[in-house]
Amino acid sequence: MRLRGTGMLSIDECINLLIFLFQLRNLLWSTSKHDVYLMQNYSVMHWSSLLGKGEEVLNVARPLAPTMKYPGSASQALSRVQISTMAVRDGLMAAGGFQGELICKYLNQPGVVFATKISNGENAITNAVDISYSPTGSMRVITANNDQQVRIFDAKSFVCTNHYAFPWSVNNTSVSPDDKLLAILGDSPECLLADAQSGKVVSNLKGHLDYSFSSAWHPDGRILATGNQDTTCRLWDIRNTSQSIAVLKGRMGAIRAIKFTSDGRFMAMAEPADFVHIFDTQSDYGTCQEIDLFGEIAGISFSPDTEALFIGVADRTYGSLLEFNRKHYHHYLDYVL
C-alpha cells in the first residue's frame, strides 16, 4: 500500500491544531473518506472534503449544559473544558478533558446530551475514550483515567455501569472486535487483558520496557498491537500471550497512536512528532512505508473504507490536517505534495 498525499488544510482554513500539551492524545477521527472530526483550540471541528470547508461541532470554551436528564446519571454543567482525547462512532462523539471530564454529543442533535466530571483528583486527566458495543448489542463509552480507573457508561442512559481499579494510571483501553476482551495499558511496562463484562484480568502481557500509551486490535480479533514509551509497538497473538510475536521499532519517540484499516490489511503507528509508519500486515509486518513530516502529531485515522489516512499535525506554523490516499495499482503508498 502506498499513500499519496492529496492535500493539506492550512491555518488560513481555520483547521490548525494548536495544542500545547506535554503529550498529545487522539484528537482526530474519520467517519468516512470525506468526513473528519478534529480539535481546533477549544472547538471540535468537522471537515468535509466534499464541501471544502470546516464547521464547528462543539465549542467547549463556553458553558456546557446537558440538554437531556437521565435518571441515575451524574450529568452536570461544565465550562471551558480542555479536550484531551476524543472518539466518534455511529453518530456519537465522546470527548475527555484534562480535569477528568467526559462529554458526549449526538452529531445530529444540537448541544451535548451528557457532561460530567468523572474524576476530581489532582492530575485527573481522562487519557482515553472508546466507543464500543457490549455482547448484547448496547452501545457503551469506556474511559481510561489517571486516577487508575476504567469506567464503562451505557450510551443510552449515560449511567456508569461498571468501574475497574488498577494499581497504576490507565493511559489507554481498547475493546476486541467481538467486544469480549478489554486491553488495558498505563504507567506500567505490563499490559493487561481483561474480561470486558467483569473487568477480571485474564492475561498479562510482558515484554515492554516502559509505560504504554496506545493499543489497537486487528479486525480478526487475534492480534493486539500495543505502543510504548520504549519506542516500540509489540504484536501479541491472544491465543498465546507468553511473549509477543513481533516488535516494530519507531524512529525516535514513544508510539502514541495505532490504527488498523477496517480490512486489516494495513496498520499505522504514530510517534509523538514527525513520523508515522504504515505496515503491510500481509507481509507479516515486514514491509513498511514511513511518512516523515514536521510537527507534533495530534492523531491518525484511516477512513472506514480504507481509502484514506488522515494525520493531524499540531504546530504553531505548520498546524494542519494531512490527507493521504491509497493507490491500488501499487502495493505501497505514495506521498505527493
From TrEMBL:
The keyword Repeat applies. It comes from the Eukaryota. The keyword Hydrolase does not apply. Pfam families: WD40. SUPFAM superfamilies: WD40 repeat-like (SSF50978). PROSITE patterns: WD_REPEATS_1, WD_REPEATS_2, WD_REPEATS_REGION. Keywords: Repeat, WD repeat. WD repeats lie at residues 205-246. This is WD-repeat protein.
